[in-house]
Amino acid sequence: ITMPGGQQPQKHYGITSAISLAPPREIDHQYTKKLCDAMKPFGVFEDEEELNHRLGHVNCMSFMASNLPPSAISCVGGKIFTFGSYRLGVHTKGADIDALCVAPRHVERSDFFQSFFEKLKQHEEIKDLRAVEDAFVPVIKFKFDGIEIDLLFARLALQSIPDNLDLRGDSILRNLDIRCIRSLNGCRVTDEILYLVPNKENFRLTLRAIKLWAKRRGIYSNMLGFLGGVSWAMLVARTCQLYPNAVAATLVHKFFLVFSKWEWPNPVLLKQPEDSNLNLPVWDPRVNPSDRYHLMPIITPAYPQQNSTYNVSTSTRTIMSEEFKYGLSVTDEILQGKAEWSKLFEPPSFFQKYK
C-alpha cells in the first residue's frame, strides 16, 4: 500500500487495523514509570543476580542436552528451547522454567525417558526428579538448584538440530508423532506471540502488570476456569496490536477498555488461522460443533490453532467481565491523577463479596 505523499505505512499487526496509532506523550511515560514503581514491591521483576542464577540453569540444560543418550554421542545432540513466561521475558522471582529438548531423528523418545533420565539422576544438584511419560504432554519434572523445571521432548525429522532453528515454520510438524507436536506447541505459540506484537518491551511490561493484577484479583488460573498465563499473554498481545505505539500505562488502560466491551463469544485472534494441510485438529466452530459452545475463545496463533480457554464457564466469564469493568474504572481514575497504581493491585474483599 502506498500512502498519500508516498510515505510507507507502518507494518500491520493483527487481523484488523489498529484503533489508534497515536505516539506516547511525556505524561504517558511518567505514568509508565509510576506503574513500574508500583509493581516492584510484588517481586515481579528479577534482579540481575537471580537472572544470572537462572541463565546458569538454562546453560546447565544445554550441557544436559549435549550429553543426551549414548546413541547421540557420535553425532550432534539435542538443543534446549525455553517457552512460557520465561521465554516471553515476564517470569517473576522463583517462577518455574518451561523447557523443551529438541532432538534429531536418531534419538528416540525412550532415550529421553530412560538413559537421559538416568543421567539426570546422577546430578547431585537435581532434586525431586520424576518422569510423567504417559501424560497428554509427556514431561520430566525436576528441581535444579531450587528452581522447578518442566522439560518436554520433541524428536524432529532432521539429521542434526541447527543453532538457528526456527520452530515457527509449520513444515517441521510433518510426519511427527502427535506427542512431539504437542510438546512443540508451547514453544511455537510463545514464539508466535512475540513475533506478532509491535513492540516487545511495551508488551512485556503491560503483561507483567496484567498478570499481577489477575493474580491479586484471584482470576489467574486455567484450572479453576479463569485464564492461565498464555491466555493473558494473548489478550495483552491483541491490545498491543490495536495500539501499536502506546506505552505500558496506556496499554493497561486500553486492555480494560477493549475487553470490558468485547462481545464474547467472538474469538480473540492474533492472526488469521491458516490450514497447513497436516490434518491436525484445529479450533473451528464452522467445522466442529463442540467449538460453538466455547464461551470465551482465545485462539493460539500457531498451527494447529487451539482455544486456550475451554475451561471457562458462564460464571467465571461473568466474574472476569466484572473485573475488566472495575479495572477500567480504576485505570480511568489513575490516568486522571485521582488514584495511584497501587489501587489496581488491591485484593478483592472476597468474604464481603461472597456472604
TrEMBL record:
<feature type="domain" description="Poly(A) polymerase central">
    <location>
        <begin position="202"/>
        <end position="346"/>
    </location>
</feature>
<feature type="binding site">
    <location>
        <position position="211"/>
    </location>
    <ligand>
        <name>ATP</name>
    </ligand>
</feature>
<feature type="binding site">
    <location>
        <position position="98"/>
    </location>
    <ligand>
        <name>Mg(2+) 1</name>
    </ligand>
</feature>
<keyword id="KW-0539">Nucleus</keyword>
<keyword id="KW-0507">mRNA processing</keyword>
<dbReference type="GO" id="GO:0006397">
    <property type="term" value="P:mRNA processing"/>
</dbReference>
<feature type="domain" description="Poly(A) polymerase nucleotidyltransferase">
    <location>
        <begin position="14"/>
        <end position="197"/>
    </location>
</feature>
<dbReference type="Pfam" id="PF04928">
    <property type="entry name" value="PAP_central"/>
</dbReference>
<feature type="binding site">
    <location>
        <position position="98"/>
    </location>
    <ligand>
        <name>Mg(2+) 2</name>
    </ligand>
</feature>
<keyword id="KW-0460">Magnesium</keyword>
<feature type="binding site">
    <location>
        <position position="92"/>
    </location>
    <ligand>
        <name>ATP</name>
    </ligand>
</feature>
<dbReference type="GO" id="GO:1990817">
    <property type="term" value="F:poly(A) RNA polymerase activity"/>
</dbReference>
<feature type="binding site">
    <location>
        <position position="150"/>
    </location>
    <ligand>
        <name>Mg(2+) 2</name>
    </ligand>
</feature>
<protein>
    <recommendedName>
        <fullName>polynucleotide adenylyltransferase</fullName>
        <ecNumber>2.7.7.19</ecNumber>
    </recommendedName>
</protein>
<dbReference type="InterPro" id="IPR043519">
    <property type="entry name" value="NT_sf"/>
</dbReference>
<feature type="binding site">
    <location>
        <position position="96"/>
    </location>
    <ligand>
        <name>Mg(2+) 1</name>
    </ligand>
</feature>
<feature type="binding site">
    <location>
        <position position="150"/>
    </location>
    <ligand>
        <name>ATP</name>
    </ligand>
</feature>
<dbReference type="Pfam" id="PF20750">
    <property type="entry name" value="PAP_NTPase"/>
</dbReference>
<keyword id="KW-0808">Transferase</keyword>
<feature type="binding site">
    <location>
        <begin position="229"/>
        <end position="230"/>
    </location>
    <ligand>
        <name>ATP</name>
    </ligand>
</feature>
<dbReference type="InterPro" id="IPR007012">
    <property type="entry name" value="PolA_pol_cen_dom"/>
</dbReference>
<dbReference type="InterPro" id="IPR014492">
    <property type="entry name" value="PolyA_polymerase"/>
</dbReference>
<feature type="binding site">
    <location>
        <position position="96"/>
    </location>
    <ligand>
        <name>Mg(2+) 2</name>
    </ligand>
</feature>
<keyword id="KW-0547">Nucleotide-binding</keyword>
<keyword id="KW-0479">Metal-binding</keyword>
<dbReference type="GO" id="GO:0005524">
    <property type="term" value="F:ATP binding"/>
</dbReference>
<dbReference type="InterPro" id="IPR048840">
    <property type="entry name" value="PolA_pol_NTPase"/>
</dbReference>
<keyword id="KW-0067">ATP-binding</keyword>
<dbReference type="GO" id="GO:0046872">
    <property type="term" value="F:metal ion binding"/>
</dbReference>
<feature type="binding site">
    <location>
        <position position="220"/>
    </location>
    <ligand>
        <name>ATP</name>
    </ligand>
</feature>
<dbReference type="GO" id="GO:0005634">
    <property type="term" value="C:nucleus"/>
</dbReference>
<feature type="binding site">
    <location>
        <begin position="83"/>
        <end position="85"/>
    </location>
    <ligand>
        <name>ATP</name>
    </ligand>
</feature>
<comment type="similarity">
    <text>Belongs to the poly(A) polymerase family.</text>
</comment>
<feature type="binding site">
    <location>
        <begin position="96"/>
        <end position="98"/>
    </location>
    <ligand>
        <name>ATP</name>
    </ligand>
</feature>
